[in-house]
Amino acid sequence: MKLRIFYDSLCPLCDAEMQHIKSLDSHDNIELQDLNQADFSIKYPEIDFALANKILHAQRADGSLITGLDVTYEAWAAVGKEKWVSLLRCSLVKPFADKGYLFFAKHRYRISYLLTGKKRCESGTCYR
Predict the structure, then answer these.
(1) Are 93 and 100 in contact (CB under 8 A)?
(2) What is the pLDDT of residues 23-43, one digit of tens each?
(3) What's the rounded Cα separation, in Å, for the pair 55 and 6?
(4) How far apart, in Å, are the Cα atoms of 81 and each of 20, 28, 66, 69, 87?
(5) Which residues of 104-114 are buried (b: 16+ CB within 10 A; e: fewer)?
(6) What whole-number distance in Å separates Cα of residue 31 and Cα of residue 87?
(7) Which of 107, 76, 103, 97 is nearest to 11 (CA)?
(8) Could you read off the pLDDT of 55-106 as tens digits, one per residue?
(9) In this structure, what DSSP letter does residue 87 have?
(10) By the 8 A CB rule, do 121 and 15 touch?
(11) CA dihedral sign, ordered 79, 81, 84, 89
């Protein structure tokens, strides 16, 4: 495992992206952990649930934490598709992309509904 991603499976777009990344993960580099699992705080006491529910969090194999679009970039890189999102980490684009991500994260359920027609999922994950 290169990257353990703590994500919100109740968000239709979030869940779809994580499942897509995992489907490309032929070397098992990504581990997905749902923030909404009943024993999340017991399994991962080092992760602040409230903060992780506001901004995407991940833990690298060395134990270091990353957040936001850095997680997205490293996840796509772990499955060999970093060029899809590398522009988001360029020095000129990064500040704007990060602000855009924070807007998305704050309004992810509304944006998911507008783009997919699906509201917050009831339980478990949206597409499994």
Answers:
(1) no
(2) 999 999 999 999 999 999 999
(3) 10
(4) 12, 14, 19, 14, 12
(5) bbeebbebbee
(6) 24
(7) 107
(8) 999 999 999 999 999 999 999 999 999 888 899 999 999 999 999 999 999 9
(9) G
(10) yes
(11) positive
Angstrom distance (rounded) from CA 103 to CA 73: 18
Q: Which amino acid, residue 34?
A: D
What is the pTM assigned to this prediction? 0.89
Tokens, residue 100: 């855009």
Instruction: Tell how far CA 68 is from the center of its chain.
Output: 8
For residue 74, give the H/E element and its range: helix 69-78
- Residues 6 and 52 sit within 8 Å (Cβ to Cβ): yes
